[in-house]
Amino acid sequence: MPDWEKRFRAARVSLPGWAEDAPQRALFVSNATGTYELYAWDRDSGAQRKVTERANGTTDGALSPDGAWIWWFDDTDGDEFGIWRRQPFAGQPAGRTGPDEPAVPGLAPGYPAGLAIGRAGGPVVVGRSTDEEGSTIHVVHGDGAPVEVYRHRQSAGVGDLSHDGALIAVEHTEHGDAMHSALRVVRPDGTTVAELDDTAGGTVELGLEVLGFAPVAGDARLLVGHQRRGRWEPMVWDVASGEERDLALDLPGDVSAEWYPDGSALLVVHDFEARSDLWRYDLGTGALERIDTPRGTVSGATARPDGSVEYLWSSAAEPPVVRSTSGAVVLDPPGLRAPASVPVEDVWVEGPGGRIHALVQRPAGASGPLPTVFDVHGGPTWHDSDSFAAGPAAWVDHGYAVVRINYRGSTGYGREWTDALKHRVGLIELEDIAAVREWAVSSGLADPGRLVLTGGSWGGYLTLLGLGTQPAAWAVGIAAVPVADYVTAYQDEMEALKAMDRTLLGGSPEEVPERFAASSPLTYVDAVKAPVYVSAGVNDPRCPIRQIDNYVDRLRARDAVHEVYRYDAGHGSLVVDERVKQVRLELEFARRHLDGPGA
What we know:
Layout: H1 3-9, E1 17-19, E2 22-30, E3 37-42, E4 48-50, E5 61-63, E6 69-75, E7 82-88, E8 101-102, E9 111-117, E10 123-130, E11 134-141, E12 147-152, E13 156-161, E14 168-172, E15 182-186, E16 192-196, E17 208-213, E18 221-226, E19 233-238, E20 244-246, E21 254-259, E22 265-272, E23 275-282, E24 288-291, E25 297-303, E26 309-314, E27 321-324, E28 329-331, E29 345-351, E30 354-361, E31 370-376, H2 390-397, E32 401-406, H3 415-418, H4 427-442, E33 446-456, H5 458-469, E34 476-480, H6 486-492, H7 495-505, H8 513-518, E35 532-537, H9 545-557, E36 562-567, H10 576-594
Parallel strand pairs: 31-32, 31-33, 33-34, 34-35, 35-36
Antiparallel strand pairs: 1-2, 2-3, 3-4, 5-6, 6-7, 7-8, 9-10, 10-11, 11-12, 13-14, 14-15, 15-16, 17-18, 18-19, 19-20, 21-22, 22-23, 23-24, 25-26, 26-27, 27-28, 29-30, 30-32
Helix pairs in contact: 1-2
């Protein structure tokens, strides 16, 4: 088995979540049996068991605070539309058969929009959305019927539930800006307690996010993320008094945080220039102390009751591992180990909107010019980091250089960089990609005749848009689960994504048709020269299949070189065999059309 395939098949685990009142009970996601599913872990005994087993996998789950119940979201073949189910932590009672019980009987299916499970006797809060109803939030007490406490056409969701179950934090976009949420705290009967809405000059431009209520009985402090100084930072908002405590941590880049279990300190996660590290902030003294972690990326972290911190870490060269500040490896899954890859190099390129950060990997000892893959991240509000990624490593194994670009729209470089996309959606990102492409060729890294543009989701969208608007720049295009026909995608996608598109483009297709046309790959499909490979999930609610078919039909009508691969899942697959198959098809497509390494 080649190294690239071993990386996909290697045993992986997520950072375990744990029950607040029963910290020995934990829940994590693993691909141990070839499909990503939920696993229960009794840390005292070491016993682990698979909780879910579905053809297309399961990743969304939660533990009740007492550790008695495991909740998991049940959709249909990856369509993200369904209900929450639950089962006892210890498994089904002897002799019981059939599926897990619905966790909230009487609540109709929907897209999930947050979940907060109260302590014994406390409420459960469930957020959901549908195309017909918009966003709704329901409260359930015990075995009672769900009671609706919130409804709005715009996107909204459950942020958190206070320790005593008396307060519910809601993130909402009632103002119509889906990129920047406001906050409302309500009681379980739906009455409003407090509001927090950051605006500038009468126009909502700054976002807020719920980071969690203090984990202490009777404590009304809410940890909030804000953008008041042009980046994400935490503050403490006392919902009862209205007092806001600005922490103003002296760290560059974006800063997030969560509570230590006793509420006396914060575990700070600091993201800066594609890497991250951890800090402890003492709320009493204001002391900020660094927690020692290796150089790379922390993908998740949690503070345990004993004061230790567990975190999921990796770098581009080294596979992920769940570590502890105690020095131990927390969770070491049995099975195949992922081979290491090559480290990433940082490159800064002057672009039309400012300096662009790119991450470059190349085969060990290789000198250019090389066939080069421009692997474009999704989101768009996301960023590539110095973390382990099996896809780029597979290209490197086959002799390619890989360039990943944190274009305008990416997170981690300040609010203005993230928010720069509006109205000229897609075109702005491609300006930055073009600037980095020019650097890659002029520096001698990349062979200008063998350049591959590829990506998934928003990265797939930028791939198709780039092939049409920059047809002479690319030799091959490989797009996974892309937006291909923006107007039809808008018509068919889930309501929350419609709201995001209206925010990005300034309205609906009926209101701003020229903007949708300018940003749609379908507009430029007849200009595409490069061979195109498209893969798509037939149940995808984010980049639906009909709009991809429209694009492919246009390629077929003019006999353009293309291949299409459809698979039975949603927005990507959780089945390892399926993912390996897709990567093999992508590598083979590039090999055939570039006559590149290994031909």
